[in-house]
Write a structure and sequence with these properties.
By secondary structure, the protein is an alpha+beta fold. The chain contains 4 helices and 7 strands; from the N terminus they run βααββββββαα.
Amino acid sequence: MNTQDFTTTLLVDETPAAAFNAINNVRGWWSEEIEGSTDKLNAEFNYHYEDVHRCKMKIIESIANKKVVWLVLENYFKFTKDENEWTGNNIIFEITEQDGKTKIRMTQVGLVPQYECFDICRDAWTTYIQKSLRNLITTGKGNPNGKGKPQTENEKKLTDK
């Protein structure tokens, strides 16, 4: 099956438990501007970056050391015609073992090339997963957005609009 949903994968020399715990530490790799619980089934949390991007997530699946799924309940982008892109998407983190390493596959079901935000979102997610989440898993310190500080170049560009 050929899907156009955004996906990115990384391999780390850490345990599935370390990956699972890091994924659930959303403030440690995505943004320090998260309100709400990010590590409990059915919990909801809010993300915002200035007036550029806001979203509300619900954790709809959580299987220890194997899988986490967020449902995007609400989303707002300042920079797209359809400000609600992402609403209804699932963001899935799958954790498996491969060749003695831990594989993390992140997929945003619904984030497709037809979305106006696709290029920016693809680049941002790639940075968050491949760099920040990887660093959190492997060193204990990620590179999340700080309060009022964008983490990716694309986000810096958006704040100038």
